[in-house]
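>> received
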Amino acid sequence: MSRKKIELNEKVEKLAEKYLQLTRTDLDDLTNTALKAYLIDHLNSNQIKEALKDTDDISSEYTGKLFNIDDLNKF
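>> returned
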């Protein structure tokens, strides 16, 4: 998947900076974790499986780190 550029609004940026400082994590990890939680909450299991079935090997490996089988079995 190609990299996407995002722009945070001022309040979200300040909150993210504080969180990143406290947890010693990076913005990529925070963004991926937050998006994963949001997407799993807003898509049903069939939509998730459909979205992930046509991925190439590189993105499948990366996607596997984001969406493990336990996440999909919750549905």
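>> The mean pLDDT is 80.
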